[in-house]
Amino acid sequence: MQRTYAHVYILDAAYRIDKRYVYFVLPEQRETIEVGSLCVVPFGNSNRRQTAVVVGFSETVDYPQVKPVAEVLEYPVRLTSELIELCTFMKERFFCTFGACVKTILPPGIGIRSSTFWSALPFERDRLNDKASFIYDKLVCGGRVSETELVCEFGDEVVTLLRAMKEIGATEKITEVKKTVNEKTLTMFRLKQSSDGTYPDPASFRSEKQKNIVDFLSGGGSLSFADGEELYGAGRSVFTTLEKNNVIERYTVRIDRDPLTPLCDEKYRNYELSDEQKNVFSAVSELMDSGEAKAALLFGVTGSGKTKVIIEACKKCLSENRSAIVLLPEIGLTAQALGIYKTVFGDRLAVVHSMLSNGERIDAYRAAASGKAKIIIGTRSAVFAPLDNIGLIAIDEEQEHTYRSDMSPKYHARDIARFRCGYHKAVMLLCSATPSVESYFKAEKGVYTLLALKNRYGGLSLPDVELADIRGDSRITDGKYIGKRLAEELKRTIDNGKQAILFASRRGYSSHLSCQSCGYVFTCPNCSVSLTYHAYGSFDRANKLICHYCGYMIPKPVACPSCGGSHIGYFGCGTQKLGEELEELFPTARAIRMDADTTGEKNSHEEILNAFGNVQYDILYGTQMVAKGLDFPNVSLVGVINADMSLFMNDFRAGERTFSLFTQLVGRAGRSMGGRAVIQTNVPDNEILNLAAAQDYERFYRSEIEIRRAVVFPPFCDMAVFSFIGDTEDDADRASTSLTGLLKNFYTQHFTSVSIVVLGPYREGIFKLKNKYRQRIIIKYRDSAASRRFLSAAYAELLKATPHTVKIELDVNQSII
Q1: Which of 323, 499, 574, 631 has its C-alpha lying 20 to 30 A from 54's C-alpha?
Q2: Which neighbouring-strand residues pair with 621?
Q3: Burial class of residue 725 in the structure, from the number of CB atoms within 10 Å of its CB (0-12 exposed, 13-18 middle, 19+ buried)
Q4: How far is the C-alpha of 706 from the C-alpha of 702, rounded, in Å?
Q5: pLDDT tens-digit series, residues 187-237
Q6: Helices and strands, number each (H, E), in the chain
Q7: Beta strands in 382-491 (DSSP E)
């Protein structure tokens, strides 16, 4: 019989050995193995069992010896051919392993846990050698022993010996497969047919509840326990009695977990597009009808109704039996958007984000793969939904850094969307009131089609914005954080029965503590950052200094550890301190906090936003999650506690981020009436703040693009960062210096045709992080096949030369540099 060979990638392979491997398929496996299947293969000289994914087949190979596939896993889902191609694209573009891509695409917990056991069979022990006899005796005594236990006791070579013993009939291999996440099932009941083929007569039952149950089931239906209770007041005992008397029988059905619990947003049940929205949708529709992959940038002021255009495009997909993905940058935005999209699309909608349980994410994956769900909404990972025949991928607030993964593979959702739209000949629709400089540059150059919504929906005007100069403000000099102008506007808002949103850049109570006597700053011993004081929280976090990077905690200090002084100063306003000040200023006002500390529980985003949307609170205050995408018609005031902190970050995108943040934040006000924003600052003449106050993106862009052009920063180049992470400061310093020299020599010898500029090495902004020390070099280049070959080869070369005390990482086009 002609052999079939499976080409696979090992899911846990290191980068330097990440390549295709070939195994032959056993005859009994041919019916179950296919492209996208997961299987177990013997890997390396020790034949260690490894999970692999099948990416292709062939009937001939050039290798003299090929091992067999050990087993094919009965996986609940598999990767499609498109997603296999996507993994290849990600591996080459983001310099990661194929296995890392597979694990990113498949939902967590979807898998199968396979456990292998061995037992002894009746056999003539004298035919075994000493070691085999010893193992055979252990199996006889143990009855059934796990392969893991045997490997721990005898080493990896025991697996080869067990297989040899199996070939001669001495041992039996038992594989137990257990799903890591169980299916959710529901117990149902139906009438049981008697031996003569008849069904019971409902009238023959004396109990009214039994009679009602049987009568209902006689129509060919089925009931659950809950159905019987709701319809007829029949408890479990009624069903149990009928089942015991062979009148009914139970069976189970698989049901999907449904996280879509928010109330529908009724204003989206019936709405009309404005003339401007109709023109934009017409342009999007034309792109979708072109039969080619297209990309467009929808640039619309805050409140212009970009969501309605996206919804219309999704409706068009459904009418043409196509599917769509809508991406949102924050889980908080997903919570509010669910009510909108659930209203319009009902059961054809599925949601994907990290706060769902593993079971809920698996059900959403299945719904997408089966075609039950045609519209997927969610955060970054939703871009991998296994939909077929995609017509649209919309990325709302496309400029947000949360669309980029900080874990390997370090992908950007926009790059994945571009690939998938190319595969399906679909439209990638980027949407924002403050597009990234790179996206707007591409729109100007014609790479993206530029679409514009210049007016707020319903003819509303943009909010009035005041830059409140807090230099010399009597409240600020008294140690408060809400200045006089903001306090006045808050009072007016509350008195008028309206709502306000306040933004503070830090969570916790105070951003740092220092000794007033000697200047000692309380810092994390594991990270080169100050500790944040938390006055409130769970029992283990209240009155603690906490590192927001590694989780290190110490109790609130009573004395300086350096000089012993007791005068400890608390500096910087966190959201907890802001809450205290609001209570002092407006004791009767109802305020609710939204930050990482209050949204850690499942559904907490929805609960906070629903409560605020139902006007149970007057003030919503928090960190960046209150700044973008929220739409509350009763909000007439937005306040910024300190606008200066983000202006002077050590990052070339600091100005762009600041402009985007405050433009978006200001746009939360005046969604159904006149609105106002008060931005507190010590630099009221700052150009970026004034442009954000005017919501003048185009003037900001003109200024920013000229700066980028002058210093050759993106979009005029691409940037790769090699990070060197050492166990000690000396390890990081030495490795970064020597490996930078090695990289330059490697480039000179092999890749001088590729134009690059090497900057560094430099210390990272946070040099020490989780007890590791970090250096980096930055490479400016232009993305091309040749430059990617250089980076990949250089990465492999550096990995070979990297000492064991140093870890090296390669990242391209980081969000923060």
Answers
A1: 323
A2: 502, 593
A3: buried
A4: 7
A5: 888 888 776 666 777 667 778 888 888 888 887 778 888 888 888 888 888
A6: 23, 33
A7: 390-396, 427-432, 449-453, 464-469
